[in-house]
Amino acid sequence: MHIGDVVCAIIERDGKFLIARRPDDGRHLGRKWEFPGGKVEPGESAIAALIRELREELNVSVTIIEQLTPVEHRYPELSLRLIAFRCRLKHGTPQAGVHEELRWIGIHEVKDYDFPEADLPILAEYRMKLGDLSSTSANEQSAD
Fold first, then answer.
1. Which helix (H) or strand (E) holds 52?
2. In this structure, is residue 141 part of a structural domain?
3. pTM listed for this prediction
4. In this structure, what CATH number is given to the domain that contains residue 61?
């Protein structure tokens, strides 16, 4: 089953980024760590979905820095296209909401957390981007 496009946010703060642990409620990828986000609804843009999901899940608004390369991934039971955005907090303090737990981690700590397979190419691209941050500030756009 193809569930369509899913958006996620790499929310940066003080050299770290936010990850969220999925609940162990019997659904797909329970207890895995992930970037906050969710499904893009029919007729909705990826950016609009990101804004909505972050408001619903974390009660925050963000400034988008850039979009990373979308990842097509197939799990045994479903497939998806994951669209990640680098962001900074604009308003609010992240609240766990639908997640069991939130943590701010550095890129060097990723190996200590169990991420879904679809997130691994995003983490690899993000690690590469961290070496070249000089040109991002001119490309930022507000998303709220």
1. helix 46-58
2. no
3. 0.84
4. 3.90.79.10
